[in-house]
Amino acid sequence: MKKETRSLPMVALRGMVIMPGMVVHFDVSREKSVAAIQEAMVEEQKIFLTAQKEIETDNPKQEDVFPVGTVGTIKQIIKLPKRIVRVLVAGESRGILNSMEYEEPYLRAMVDVVDDSDITVPEDLNGEALIRGLKDMFVDYAAKNGKMSKEAVAQILEIKDLKKLVDEIAANIPLYYTDQQDILNETEFWKRYELLAFKLVNEVQIMDIKEEIQQKVKERVDKHQREYILREQLKLIREELGDDTTLSDAEEFEQAAQKLKAPKEIKEKLNKEISRFKSSLNSPAESGVIRTYIETILEMPWDKSVKDSNDIAYAEKVLEEEHYGLEQVKERILEFLAVRTLTKKGESPILCLVGPPGTGKTSIAKSLARALKKPYVRISLGGVRDEAEIRGHRKTYVGAMPGRIANGIRSAGVKNPLMLLDEIDKVSTDYKGDTFSALLEVLDSEQNSKFRDHYLEVPLDLSEVLFITTANTLQTIPRPLLDRMEVIEISSYTENEKLHIAVEHLIPKQMKKHGLSSEQLTISKHAIWKIARNYTKEAGVRQLEREIGNICRKTAKELLTTKKTKIAVTEKNIHKYLGKEKYIYQMANPAPEIGIVRGLAWTSVGGDTLQIEVNVMPGSGEIMLTGQLGDVMKESAQTGISYIRSVSRRYEIAEDFFEKHDIHVHIPEGAVPKDGPSAGITMATAMISAITGRKVWADLAMTGEVTLRGRVLAIGGLKEKLLAAKNAGIKTVLIPKENKADIEELSAEITRGLQIIPVENMDEVLDKALIAEHAGKEKKE
Q1: I need a labelling partner for 526 at 20 to 30 A (CA). Which of 211, 604, 634, 675 fits?
Q2: Those residues with Cβ within 8 angstroms of residue 509's Cβ, 6 or more apart along the chain or in another chain
Q3: Could you read off the pLDDT of 215-235 as tens digits, one per residue?
Q4: What CATH number did the domain enclosing 551 receive?
């Protein structure tokens, strides 16, 4: 391969590449290019042609053009109007741009003219194989492309010289100018051969894929066209037969839209979608989406409502029949009914029933729906973590559907049902959106009159829906959402309430479920009390119902396998049906002791008593806390010690006592984690008792938090704690003075038999709890 450097006029081409061996004409309009052609005609008619990198460039520099071009000979020039010159050029050899000599008045460049005439091509079988392979690829390309004339293809196939064949194919195939430039850039023949072969194969594959796609599109269009023609023929046949009873889907939708009672905005949206449905009949995928949407809109009860029952006496009767206790809930519901009757307004409060599991939160909502004679819809929110479950999916998504709220309204068939949002405290949040925030709009009476479901895309009025929500705890509900609800706490059932619930509801229900009659099975009241006390440990009655069901199953088996016709379950034989007792209440100690005080605790399954033991032993002033205590209880113990040290003179405690003794505070059942602020005064009393050696009354229990100065702070869960004290045989209970108002809300059944003493500071606590020597003797006598 030889190179000769020459100075030649240069023309920068836009969007085209001239290859060696090509004879092509092109139009020139730029003054520089016209001047370069005229200068070439004055010289030897030789000109250097190279392509611009960017078509839009008007005054190209050396960096704006490709470095490899073609040296050609101008064969003919024709002047056209508007200063346009048409040039006929024959490409001869490759040229490599070295530098630009000057750019005005025309482009002139120093070019290395590449002469590759000395390249030798093997004339053996290898050379023949290269020629035939390239010709086969070219024939395949020409057949797929269809733009090359048969004469041009035949002429190229006659070429037997491999070098000339490569140049002719590269010059004649209609590639994009950048692809042609890639071939032109290869000054080495064998690399050029490989690149040309790759381009041919690549273009053939692209055309195969294009042909396959076009064929599929054609088949689909033909199918849709055929379906359209058949539909039109079917419509014409129906018209000829006079079969007017069979309406098309679009006509049915139009008739349903006319009958629909809905706001103007919704009817306009519906009519627009029906028009889209008509125009999309040739596209089953799109028409299916629109059809589902229209059917959903038509099924929604936009202006359909049910008249609420204003009969307060009937509502009270229903609530009393189906639920025992729950006085606060019943009272609030009856108040709501009374206000609605007077105001005749449909706006409803949003009630949140909070309480332990099994206390009847879900069933009270069902009873309320029956009392109001409203449709009942229950939506379980436990574990819901996708915002679209509440607001719905955009209807453009595959499988889109309305949210649970809109679906609930649709299934109720009216716009003012009673909707229960169950387990609202168990809603979770993840990357798909904040579900709690989506519920804000639903449960806000100021916003929910224009609630927007993403699928419906039109406002949905939720202001007349009576929302009832249930939760086991308020801790996991965000404050903004909690603020929109009226919280009603449902506390634990007393044993007497459990007895009434079992007799009036649970036993009849389970006996009917197991096919038993009252003549076949009787369960005594004392047996039910024993089940509630020793076989279940819960705030509600769910486990109690399971145990009654267990008795019914064993009774059914016994009736069928023996000759008995009637079975009576009593306190004495209950172990035969339920086995040994599962829970035993820790009763009050038989006699006063030193360093042992009974505390009261609240748990998720009701109240419990907590025995705190303190021992004092010689040591170095260490304080040990055992029994799986949480951080709050540890802090309460430390606070109690600090208070005792501050009043040590009052109780005649030696100044060096805490330096020479260790104090060990222990709460039995160490495997059970314990935490909370209500054991402060209990631990402080137990420690003073152990330090001073004074006994504590055995039938006394206490609850309350203590401060460094000995003040007693308020606590929660008083009802459950008093029930636990009563079950343990406690006679006297010390409670914080700030909780005195809570006692007034408790029923006489809970407080009967208990001496409840409000205390304000530790002096009062110790005065009531510690036994003086003479007081102990007087009580003994």
Answers
A1: 604
A2: 545
A3: 888 877 777 787 778 777 777
A4: 1.10.8.60
